[in-house]
Amino acid sequence: MRTVSNGHRFAATPLASGGTSAQQWLAADRPPPLDLSPCTRLVVVGAHPDDETLGMGATIAQLVASRVAVEVVSVSDGGAAQPHAPAEKRTRLESLRRSELRSAAMVLGVAAPISLGLPDGRLGECEERIADLLTDILTGSAPGTWCAATWRGDGHPDHEAVGRAAVTACARNGVQLLEYPVWMWHWATPGDPDVPWDSAHTLPSDRRAMQRKQRAAHCFRSQFEPHGPDAVLPPVVLDRLMAVGELVFR
Fold it and tell me: What pLDDT, in 10s, does the model give residues 186-233?
């Protein structure tokens, strides 16, 4: 799968604009479902705390219910979510977001996540380090181990850096890679030529798994509350992600 950066697309679609609506996505043809039965262990990698839940939360919950081992890795602690905050507030935010991630993981049924603690907003500078750390996590993986990471074309530079690093780590270990979008749903459109639809697969989830995803997402109160101009992520972001379901590129 050949993918280039879509940072320019993301930058040109402000959050305040709302982006592509859930209705537009739901009216489009859906990619074929992905058979997850060969997966006996899944390592889910997010650039920031909440990526794993927003992009893969229902799939995580469903796999856990099926007794598949799932691990969550957060590359950064999310301290740059409020980029102009003073250093002291940023440190508090990092601690809060780690706590939120632990709470969300508990809701999804996953053990304590691994936090790599690399600098939020600057993961492109750490790409080789990320690849090495993910390589260590995946080294010695048994057959049936898969890794899901933020899509290398997602538009957010941190998401893309993590995706590229995961490509390298999985290739080193012979691990199947899945890439999940988060921001694609905001800036792209159905049939968008910047999206590799020929590699796309849906991840069907039952109602209970979707409910767990909703509950886990609400653990990230620092991102979705308070509502209004001070919210980091406007409500439309979560509403859209809950409506469109989950998708990966393989």
Answer: 999 999 999 999 999 999 999 999 999 999 999 999 888 765 444 578
46 - beta bridge partners? 74
> Percentage of the chain with pLDDT > 70?
95
Sign of CA dihedral 189, 179, 43, 29: positive
Q: Pairing relation of β-strands 114-118 and 69-76?
A: parallel
Predicted confidence (pLDDT) at residue 131 exceeds the cutoff of 50: yes
Could you count the other beta carbons within 10 Å of the beta carbon of residue 20? Answer: 20
**Contact residues for 20 (Cβ-Cβ < 8 A; gap 6+):** 185, 186, 187, 188, 189, 240
**How far is Cα 156 from Cα 148, in angstroms, rounded to an integer?**
17
Q: How many CA atoms lie within 13 A of 95 on its CB side?
A: 6
DSSP symbol at 114:
E
Nearest CA-CA partner of 75 in 108, 45, 41: 45
Place of tokens 């049924």: 109
Q: What span, in angstroms and rounded, lies between the C-alpha atoms of 142 and 86?
A: 44
> Cβ-count burial of 87 within 10 angstroms (0-12 exposed, 13-18 middle, 19+ buried)?
exposed
CA distances from 195 to 74, 162, 168 (A): 24, 18, 21
Query: Residue 116 contacts by C-beta under 8 Å, 6 or more apart in sequence?
Result: 73, 74, 75, 76, 130, 133
